[in-house]
Amino acid sequence: MSVSATKDAVDGAQDIVLRYGIDLTTAEVIRHALEHIALQMQIKINTAALSPLLSEVNDFGIGLLGPRDLERDLDFDAIAMGSAAPAHYVINQFYARMAIEHWGVENFRPGDVIIYNDPYRGGSHINDIGTVMPIFHNDKLMGFATAITHWLDIGGPVPTGFGPGLQRDMYAEGIRLSPRHLYKGGELVRETVELFTEQTRIPDISMNDLQVVRAALKLGVDMVGSYIDRYGAEAYASAVQYTLDHTERAMRSALAKLPDGEYSAQDYLDNNMEGEPMLLRCTVSKYGDNVEVDFSGSSREEWGGFACTWSDTVSGAHLGLQVALPESISPNAGAYRPVHVVTPPGSCFHALPPMSTNAGHTMFTEKAINLVKMAVSTADPALAMGEHYDDVALMSFGGLDDRGPLPVPFVHMALFHGPFGGSAQSDGSCFGFVDGGNCLTTSVELDEEIYPLMILAREFVTDTAGAGQYRGGPATRTLIATLCNVESVYQLEQCRFPTQAANGGASGSRAFIGVHRNALETWASGRSLGPEEILAGIVDSQGHLTDAEVEGETEFRLSKRSGVPFGAGDIIVHQVAGGGGCGDPATRDRDAIEKDIRNGLVSAERALTDYGYAANA
Amino acid sequence: MLFPQPQSLTISEDRQEVDAACGNCGAQPVFRYRVVTYRGWERVTKCPKCLSVMAGEPLEPPVQSGQLK
Fold first, then answer.
1. How far apart are CA A605 and CA A615, in angstroms?
2. Distance, CA of A376 to CA of A145 (rounded, Å)
């Protein structure tokens, strides 16, 4: 069947039989089963992995690729993905398929698991470990189970791998694997495992989690096998074709509701390696039910990891559309058929080897998503929305925990949730993870039990939400105490440029990172900590946080750095940006303002200045 | 730095004008440039008005082929 034929509306159950050769019930049972299988695979990772990034945070993507069947226009496409990190499950359409081609389709055998992590082969960054396991039925290859799992550490000079400004090329990132056996015919390949146990800082976690990934893939292989046993290989392939076409129709239907036109958005990354802001642009052209997303006009790639792979950008473009559209579209390749992405080589959205992409992966994927979202939000007043906190805000800690009788090496990565912008329908969500991540934070209990850290506070901050008819969500401030000497990496956005507002709303507050040196005992005594030393953000001549840059009077301290030392007893202050507001603040519902004041999100003073509302004394 | 970097501060895809009219909407000119489809890289001839694709040929990704233009 040609792709264009799938655009036609389905004319009843009989039409399904004519088009696909299976009845509607079977087609729907298998379509839903595929999604269920992907979720089961995801839960397998959650329940058995040792790495918190996999067990708690959901920093992975896992699911199924369909068969290669050119008569049905199938070519190992992504047919179902779990609900974990979206940036990972979109990219499987490229990462896994390029690894399969590189390995050679004819070289797969039952029980094999192939592992790889080269970002320049359709991947994301070097920490994201790709795996595929073939699905055979009576010696016929029926597709693959596939996963991308974020490895907590991948060797190289920086614990956790993120090295903004430090990793100037890909050779400084860690171990890089072209596709190779992790399992061969069901047997674990020792030499591959030893790459992880000998060359990363997490040998014990790696030993367990490599086997967990295989177990999850095997679960997918077995479950698909049970459906093929029940319905037959032909019916399964037809149902896969139906599934992709079904999603394509849903996506085209959603796109068709947007007005035709050209929509653009512009943003900046706070800084490159040398402290200069990076211009980011995106144009979304839409006609009928087709879309083209073009990132031309964006900054060149910048050394030190300030760029991402083309596949990350393509993934971001698809996700941006899915986030912007009101409809809920299944995450499979059918949704990507109506979309073309232009990502110019040499730009920050298309790194060229040997550029490092480890740090840039999170920065630019999320910026790509947000640019598309912001561009589409201008297509229709009903889609308007303010900007969210806009990057995978992360902070890593590595070192030797020397509190016990024996020093214990540790690596930890903290992810920070934050606010979303207000929209034409509602206030912004106060506390969630950026669209591309959909991750969870590790629990405070886990952080404090396993790592030499204490989480002293995690709280919303008054007067940080962008004002609007529908306000943005408030910033979240987190206080973290380090209990031994550590080395840290941080990546945070909007310390320099605040969140963008929509339809007459106001920007939210800027983000920042500060530290109170050796202050844990002071905090414990209840005494004031005083002003923090600002590490990331705009400061005045006295080093105090300030709200706007003035040439010659202020200094911007980089919001992405690696190799930052903290001492035992230091208290780190981490505050994300406030969400942008949407709509004229003067039109905000008075009861909503009262509620914000009661909840401590807006002070009485700012209610008067921002909303023109005089609170009851 | 050990490796070169693009000299231009911003980077754009080069769209080559093609002396032809769109077969769907009649708009003129149409353009030839690279896109990433859901299956991978293609060099397409495409209408800027209605986004119709008049021609397309698969490409290796630039980072594999080394062809950056």
1. 9
2. 33
> How far is it, in rounded angstroms, from Cα A537 to Cα A511?
7
pLDDT in tens, A541-572: 999 999 889 999 999 999 999 999 999 999 99
Any idea which residue has 């062809």 for tokens? Answer: B67
B14-68: per-residue pLDDT in tens?
A: 999 999 999 999 999 999 999 999 999 999 999 999 999 999 999 999 999 988 8
Phi-psi region of A236 (alpha: psi -120 to 50; beta: other; left: phi over 0): alpha
B2 contacts in A (CB within 8 Å)?
168-169
Are A515 and A572 a contacting pair, CB within 8 Å? yes
Dihedral over Cα of A357, A358, A359, A363: its sign: positive
A287 min Cα distance to partner chain B (Å) = 5
Asked whether the beta carbons of A341 and A94 are under 8 A apart, the reply is no
Question: Which residues of B fall below an 8 Å CB-CB distance to A?
Answer: 1-3, 5-6, 8-13, 33-40, 44, 46, 48-51, 61-64, 68
> Helix/strand/coil (H, E, C) string of A343-386?
CCCCECCCCCCCECCCCHHHHHHHHHHHHHHHHHCCCCHHHCEC
Say how many CA atoms lie within 13 Å of A470 toward its Cβ: 20
Query: In chain B, what residues touch A300 (CB-CB under 8 Å)?
Result: 5-6, 8-11
Tell me the shortest Cα–Cα distance from B28 to chain A, in angstroms: 16
Strands (E) across A179-258 are located at 180-184, 187-188
Taking the C-alpha atoms of residue B68 and residue A73, their distance in angstroms, rounded to an integer, is 29
Name the one residue in this structure whose structure tokens are 């390029």: A98
pTM equals 0.96
Angle between helices A203-231 and A190-199 (to 10 degrees): 140
Nearest to A310 among B11, B33, B36 (CB): B36
Evaluate whether A62 touches A38 at the Cβ level (below 8 Å): yes
- How far, in Å, CA of A135 to CA of A68, rounded? 12
B68: left (phi over 0), alpha (psi -120 to 50) or beta: alpha
Q: Do B12 and A297 touch (CB under 8 A)?
A: yes
Mean pLDDT across A50-63:
94
Do A123 and A99 touch, CB atoms closer than 8 A?
no
